[in-house]
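Students often ask why inverse folding is considered easier than folding. One informal answer: many sequences map to the same fold, so there is more than one right answer. In these notes we will look at a single instance of the problem. The structure comes first.
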């Protein structure tokens, strides 16, 4: 049995504690410090997964906590950046709506006594990665004076992130409907 208190889980908890700090920095327009905190958070995200595998310290707690840390960071950044007019409001709405939609779907499945296997799908992993890349790039643009016009790159990144986020939400809707239909057909879920 692996202890809940291990290095990978400690790194994940640290990422959660970094969220309010980055929110304060964003509110105060301290984009460079936000970028550093965001980068540290991203590196620790990769490191916690690597260490969990290498040290054989995977835990159910960590499996639940890791996506919560990712979502807390992404949603906080999207909200603040949208309120400040740095990213489009529609993009923040899509990102936050998808995550709320997924949580609502999990709640519905649990109310129906279905226990969904809570692990991110491949499209969800790509979506989260693209959302975090989007925030990272925006913070880089706000932190440094770049020698080229980034408007077209940002616009493309915003639309690609919005599109992938939307399709990820549709994917989870289909998965949820299939789970409910299996139950209706008398199948027992693992």
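Output (designed amino acids):
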């Amino acid at each position: 049995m692996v202890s809940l208190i291990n290095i990978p889980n400690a790194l994940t908890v640290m990422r959660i504690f970094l969220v309010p700090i980055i929110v304060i920095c964003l509110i105060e327009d301290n984009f460079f410090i936000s970028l550093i905190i965001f980068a540290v958070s991203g590196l620790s995200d990769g490191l916690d997964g690597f260490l969990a595998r290498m040290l054989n310290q995977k835990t159910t707690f960590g499996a639940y906590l890791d996506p919560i840390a990712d979502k807390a960071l992404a949603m906080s950044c999207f909200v603040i950046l949208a309120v400040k007019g740095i990213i489009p409001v529609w993009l923040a709405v899509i990102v936050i709506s998808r995550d709320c939609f997924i949580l609502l779907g999990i709640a519905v499945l649990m109310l129906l006594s279905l226990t969904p296997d809570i692990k991110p799908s491949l499209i969800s992993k790509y979506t989260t990665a693209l959302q975090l890349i989007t925030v990272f790039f925006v913070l880089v643009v706000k932190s440094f004076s770049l020698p080229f016009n980034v408007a077209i790159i940002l616009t493309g990144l915003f639309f690609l992130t919005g599109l992938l986020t939307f399709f990820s939400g549709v994917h989870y809707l289909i998965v949820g409907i299939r789970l409910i239909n299996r139950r209706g057909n008398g199948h027992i879920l693992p």
